[in-house]
Amino acid sequence: MIATLFDLQSNMCHEEKVPDFDTLHMGPLVQMPLVRSLFQIPTGQTEIIQVGVVDVVEALASLMRRLGPNRTDRIQPSDIVNKLALQHGVDALVSEGQNSQQNHTTMKNSLDMFVYMQALGVRIGGLGFYIKNLSEARKKEYAAQDVLNQKDSEMQRTALEALTAKKESLNKQQAENLAVLQQQHVDELQALQALGKERKARAQTDLDFNAASHLMQECDPTPHFAV
Asked: Rounded to whole angstroms, how far apart are CA atoms 29 and 123?
Protein backbone atom coordinates (compact mmCIF):
# COMPACT_ATOMS: atom_id res chain seq x y z
CA MET A 1 0.00 0.00 0.00
CA ILE A 2 1.25 3.49 -0.87
CA ALA A 3 -0.26 6.70 0.49
CA THR A 4 0.89 10.31 0.54
CA LEU A 5 -0.10 13.34 2.55
CA PHE A 6 -0.24 15.49 -0.59
CA ASP A 7 -2.82 13.16 -2.17
CA LEU A 8 -4.85 13.21 1.06
CA GLN A 9 -4.94 17.00 1.00
CA SER A 10 -5.83 17.08 -2.72
CA ASN A 11 -8.63 14.54 -2.29
CA MET A 12 -10.11 16.40 0.68
CA CYS A 13 -10.14 19.65 -1.30
CA HIS A 14 -11.73 17.86 -4.22
CA GLU A 15 -14.44 16.31 -2.08
CA GLU A 16 -15.21 19.61 -0.35
CA LYS A 17 -14.99 21.50 -3.66
CA VAL A 18 -12.58 24.11 -2.35
CA PRO A 19 -9.45 25.50 -4.05
CA ASP A 20 -7.15 24.81 -1.10
CA PHE A 21 -7.22 23.29 2.38
CA ASP A 22 -6.96 26.63 4.19
CA THR A 23 -10.39 27.55 2.83
CA LEU A 24 -11.89 24.92 5.13
CA HIS A 25 -10.58 26.79 8.21
CA MET A 26 -9.68 23.53 9.91
CA GLY A 27 -6.15 24.51 10.82
CA PRO A 28 -2.97 22.95 9.41
CA LEU A 29 -3.58 19.48 8.01
CA VAL A 30 -0.25 18.23 9.36
CA GLN A 31 -1.34 19.09 12.91
CA MET A 32 -4.47 16.97 12.87
CA PRO A 33 -4.12 14.03 15.29
CA LEU A 34 -5.23 11.39 12.80
CA VAL A 35 -2.88 12.72 10.12
CA ARG A 36 0.02 12.86 12.56
CA SER A 37 -0.77 9.30 13.60
CA LEU A 38 -0.86 8.02 10.02
CA PHE A 39 2.09 9.94 8.55
CA GLN A 40 4.03 10.82 11.73
CA ILE A 41 4.98 14.23 10.38
CA PRO A 42 8.08 15.63 12.13
CA THR A 43 7.34 18.14 14.87
CA GLY A 44 7.40 21.69 13.60
CA GLN A 45 6.91 20.80 9.92
CA THR A 46 4.08 22.74 8.30
CA GLU A 47 4.90 22.32 4.61
CA ILE A 48 3.32 19.49 2.64
CA ILE A 49 5.72 18.34 -0.06
CA GLN A 50 3.99 17.74 -3.38
CA VAL A 51 4.60 14.01 -3.68
CA GLY A 52 1.68 11.91 -4.87
CA VAL A 53 1.21 8.18 -5.28
CA VAL A 54 1.83 8.71 -9.00
CA ASP A 55 5.26 10.15 -8.20
CA VAL A 56 6.09 7.15 -6.01
CA VAL A 57 5.00 4.70 -8.71
CA GLU A 58 6.92 6.61 -11.38
CA ALA A 59 10.04 6.47 -9.22
CA LEU A 60 9.52 2.73 -8.79
CA ALA A 61 9.03 2.28 -12.56
CA SER A 62 12.22 4.24 -13.22
CA LEU A 63 14.18 1.99 -10.87
CA MET A 64 12.67 -1.12 -12.50
CA ARG A 65 13.73 0.08 -15.95
CA ARG A 66 17.23 0.79 -14.72
CA LEU A 67 17.70 -2.55 -12.95
CA GLY A 68 15.97 -4.71 -15.57
CA PRO A 69 13.21 -7.32 -15.24
CA ASN A 70 15.38 -9.88 -13.43
CA ARG A 71 16.49 -7.61 -10.57
CA THR A 72 13.25 -6.00 -9.38
CA ASP A 73 13.41 -8.04 -6.17
CA ARG A 74 16.34 -5.87 -5.12
CA ILE A 75 14.25 -2.70 -5.00
CA GLN A 76 13.58 -1.50 -1.47
CA PRO A 77 11.34 1.33 -0.19
CA SER A 78 14.52 3.13 0.83
CA ASP A 79 15.56 3.34 -2.84
CA ILE A 80 12.34 5.14 -3.71
CA VAL A 81 12.52 7.44 -0.68
CA ASN A 82 16.07 8.33 -1.62
CA LYS A 83 15.10 9.13 -5.20
CA LEU A 84 12.09 11.25 -4.18
CA ALA A 85 14.07 13.07 -1.49
CA LEU A 86 16.71 14.10 -4.00
CA GLN A 87 14.05 15.18 -6.53
CA HIS A 88 12.15 17.33 -4.02
CA GLY A 89 15.04 18.87 -2.19
CA VAL A 90 14.81 16.72 0.91
CA ASP A 91 18.23 15.35 1.75
CA ALA A 92 17.35 11.74 2.52
CA LEU A 93 20.93 11.00 3.50
CA VAL A 94 21.75 13.71 6.02
CA SER A 95 24.60 12.41 8.08
CA GLU A 96 27.61 14.14 9.54
CA GLY A 97 30.87 12.86 8.14
CA GLN A 98 29.38 11.01 5.10
CA ASN A 99 30.71 12.04 1.71
CA SER A 100 28.37 13.13 -1.09
CA GLN A 101 29.05 10.04 -3.19
CA GLN A 102 27.81 7.77 -0.41
CA ASN A 103 24.89 10.09 0.28
CA HIS A 104 23.60 9.69 -3.27
CA THR A 105 23.74 5.91 -3.38
CA THR A 106 22.31 4.39 -0.21
CA MET A 107 20.45 5.13 3.01
CA LYS A 108 22.46 5.41 6.16
CA ASN A 109 20.11 3.03 7.99
CA SER A 110 16.47 2.11 8.40
CA LEU A 111 15.93 4.99 10.84
CA ASP A 112 16.93 7.52 8.19
CA MET A 113 14.45 5.99 5.74
CA PHE A 114 11.50 6.33 8.11
CA VAL A 115 12.53 9.84 9.18
CA TYR A 116 12.56 11.08 5.62
CA MET A 117 9.46 9.14 4.62
CA GLN A 118 7.78 11.19 7.34
CA ALA A 119 9.29 14.41 5.99
CA LEU A 120 8.01 13.58 2.49
CA GLY A 121 4.59 12.63 3.85
CA VAL A 122 4.83 9.18 2.29
CA ARG A 123 3.79 5.76 3.56
CA ILE A 124 5.07 2.70 1.70
CA GLY A 125 3.68 -0.50 3.12
CA GLY A 126 4.90 -2.81 0.38
CA LEU A 127 6.01 -2.80 -3.25
CA GLY A 128 5.13 -6.33 -4.40
CA PHE A 129 1.67 -5.40 -5.73
CA TYR A 130 3.02 -2.44 -7.69
CA ILE A 131 6.07 -4.28 -9.02
CA LYS A 132 3.85 -7.12 -10.23
CA ASN A 133 1.43 -4.81 -12.00
CA LEU A 134 4.18 -2.66 -13.50
CA SER A 135 5.95 -5.79 -14.77
CA GLU A 136 2.74 -7.09 -16.36
CA ALA A 137 2.08 -3.67 -17.91
CA ARG A 138 5.61 -3.60 -19.29
CA LYS A 139 5.19 -7.07 -20.80
CA LYS A 140 1.93 -5.97 -22.44
CA GLU A 141 3.67 -2.85 -23.67
CA TYR A 142 6.46 -4.92 -25.20
CA ALA A 143 3.91 -7.32 -26.74
CA ALA A 144 1.95 -4.41 -28.20
CA GLN A 145 5.18 -2.91 -29.54
CA ASP A 146 6.07 -6.24 -31.13
CA VAL A 147 2.65 -6.34 -32.81
CA LEU A 148 3.12 -2.78 -34.07
CA ASN A 149 6.61 -3.62 -35.34
CA GLN A 150 5.24 -6.72 -37.07
CA LYS A 151 2.45 -4.68 -38.67
CA ASP A 152 4.99 -2.07 -39.76
CA SER A 153 7.13 -4.79 -41.30
CA GLU A 154 4.13 -6.27 -43.10
CA MET A 155 3.09 -2.85 -44.37
CA GLN A 156 6.62 -2.16 -45.58
CA ARG A 157 6.78 -5.56 -47.27
CA THR A 158 3.38 -5.02 -48.91
CA ALA A 159 4.41 -1.56 -50.08
CA LEU A 160 7.69 -2.93 -51.43
CA GLU A 161 5.89 -5.73 -53.26
CA ALA A 162 3.43 -3.22 -54.74
CA LEU A 163 6.28 -0.98 -55.88
CA THR A 164 8.13 -3.94 -57.36
CA ALA A 165 5.01 -5.12 -59.20
CA LYS A 166 4.39 -1.61 -60.50
CA LYS A 167 7.99 -1.33 -61.64
CA GLU A 168 7.76 -4.70 -63.39
CA SER A 169 4.50 -3.63 -65.01
CA LEU A 170 6.08 -0.40 -66.20
CA ASN A 171 9.12 -2.25 -67.48
CA LYS A 172 6.87 -4.70 -69.32
CA GLN A 173 4.83 -1.84 -70.79
CA GLN A 174 8.01 -0.06 -71.83
CA ALA A 175 9.31 -3.25 -73.44
CA GLU A 176 6.04 -3.72 -75.30
CA ASN A 177 6.07 -0.10 -76.47
CA LEU A 178 9.68 -0.49 -77.59
CA ALA A 179 8.79 -3.67 -79.48
CA VAL A 180 5.91 -1.86 -81.21
CA LEU A 181 8.21 1.01 -82.18
CA GLN A 182 10.83 -1.40 -83.47
CA GLN A 183 8.22 -3.24 -85.52
CA GLN A 184 6.93 0.04 -86.91
CA HIS A 185 10.49 0.96 -87.87
CA VAL A 186 10.99 -2.40 -89.57
CA ASP A 187 7.71 -2.04 -91.42
CA GLU A 188 8.69 1.43 -92.58
CA LEU A 189 12.07 0.16 -93.83
CA GLN A 190 10.41 -2.70 -95.63
CA ALA A 191 7.91 -0.29 -97.19
CA LEU A 192 10.73 1.99 -98.30
CA GLN A 193 12.63 -0.97 -99.74
CA ALA A 194 9.52 -2.14 -101.60
CA LEU A 195 8.94 1.37 -102.94
CA GLY A 196 12.54 1.58 -104.07
CA LYS A 197 12.27 -1.75 -105.86
CA GLU A 198 9.03 -0.66 -107.54
CA ARG A 199 10.59 2.60 -108.72
CA LYS A 200 13.63 0.72 -109.96
CA ALA A 201 11.41 -1.72 -111.82
CA ARG A 202 9.45 1.12 -113.43
CA ALA A 203 12.62 2.84 -114.43
CA GLN A 204 13.93 -0.36 -115.94
CA THR A 205 10.62 -0.82 -117.80
CA ASP A 206 10.87 2.70 -119.19
CA LEU A 207 14.42 2.08 -120.30
CA ASP A 208 13.44 -1.16 -122.00
CA PHE A 209 10.51 0.55 -123.72
CA ASN A 210 12.66 3.42 -124.99
CA ALA A 211 15.33 1.02 -126.18
CA ALA A 212 12.75 -1.06 -128.05
CA SER A 213 11.25 2.03 -129.65
CA HIS A 214 14.65 3.21 -130.79
CA LEU A 215 15.45 -0.17 -132.21
CA MET A 216 12.17 -0.30 -134.08
CA GLN A 217 12.84 3.08 -135.62
CA GLU A 218 16.22 1.97 -136.80
CA CYS A 219 14.81 -1.16 -138.37
CA ASP A 220 11.77 0.52 -140.10
CA PRO A 221 12.47 0.62 -143.92
CA THR A 222 9.73 3.15 -144.57
CA PRO A 223 11.34 6.42 -145.69
CA HIS A 224 10.33 9.50 -143.88
CA PHE A 225 9.90 12.60 -145.96
CA ALA A 226 9.97 15.94 -144.61
CA VAL A 227 6.82 17.88 -145.30
From this structure: 16
Q: What is the pTM of this model?
A: 0.56
Whole-number Å distance between alpha carbons of 127 and 57: 9
CB of 33 closer than 8 Å to CB of 26: no
- Burial state string for 175-214 with b = 16 or more CB within 10 A and e = fewer than 16: eeeeeeeeeeeeeeeeeeeeeeeeeeeeeeeeeeeeeeee
d(CA 14, CA 135): 31
Residue among 2, 78, 5 at smallest CA distance from 42 = 5
Q: What is the DSSP string of 126-142?
A: -SHHHHHHHHHHHHHHH
Residues 160 and 9: their CA atoms lie apart, in Å, by 57
Neighbours of 8 (CB within 10 A): 18
Which residues in 96-134 are b (16+ Cβ under 10 Å) and which e?
A: eeeeeeebeeebbeeebbebbbbbbbbbbeebeebbeeb
Residue 55 clears pLDDT 60, i.e. is over it: yes
pLDDT value at 77 more than 50: yes
Please give the sequence-ordered ranges of beta strands (E in DSSP) within the chain, or none if there are none.
2-4, 122-124
The helix/strand/coil state of 99 is coil
